[in-house]
Structures are given as C-alpha cells and as structure tokens.
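Researcher: I'd like a structural prediction for the single chain below. Treat it as a standalone chain; there are no partners to consider.
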Amino acid sequence: MEELLRILEKNARLPLEDIAAMLDKTPTETAALMDEAADKGYIRGYEALIDWEKAGVNVVEAVIELHVSPRKSRGFDEIASVIASFDEVDSVLLMSGGYDLQVLIKGRSFQEIAIFVAKRLSPLDDVLSTATSFVLRTYKRSGRLYLDEETDDREWTVL
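Model: Treating it as a single chain, here is the predicted structure.
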C-alpha cells in the first residue's frame, strides 16, 4: 500500500496500467488497492499544483502563526476545527516550537487577507495572538520547482 501511495503522491495522473506495472499487479488489483486507500481515508483528494503567477491570476498567500489557548477537554482540536472551517483557510497545522498553529490562507489581495485576520481570526476567543507573513514568491512546492531555468543567450567563444 505504501508504494502505491508514494506513486500517487508524485503523479496521480499516471494511467492505471502504468501504476499496476510499477507495482507488479494487475490493473484490477491496483484499482481495488486505490479504492481501499480512499475508503480508509489514506487518500484525501487529488489536486493540481498551479503556478498562479505564471497563469496571470492574482492569488495572495499568507502564513499565519497563532498562539492559542487550548481547551482542557479537547486540546487544540476544537480551535483548529473552527479555523479549518473557514473557506479562506487552505491548511491548519499543529506545530512544535514558538507558536501553536500554522494557518495557510489564500486570497485575492493583501487587504483581503488582512481583513480576514482582523475580523474573523483574531476575534476568536481561543486566539491569543497572530503573526502574518505574506508569501512573496514560490520557488518549490510539494517537491516541484516553480522557477523555469533561465537561458543564457550569451555567445561563447572557444579558443
């Protein structure tokens, strides 16, 4: 199962027959494994990595560090669930170190994200403080490089 998940993590668009060959299984066996992985919740979805800058679409991303006050009965789970329910929120991660939760959000502008933090996130009872950092450029995401290699058009003279 782990090998299947690693293959899908790198490229979920591979044809079923190719994945089956990589696993030394039949396509029917591989499809059954994929269904089992989905049923057990190992596979949470399939997505494309989009270079919005290259596509000419204005998408602003921010990383927000949160200090929160966890509830005695449920720890960080309750506040993390509330934050995860917001449409703007892409990811919520429990962290070790200097802050408790890391929230990744997307918006159409810096102002839209600032308003979200000020009006929806900061006022939550369990949120003690926030620190927002805006993503200025993506170089690599999920193991994929985002920058094209720059070509050097200078001519070389070999003696």
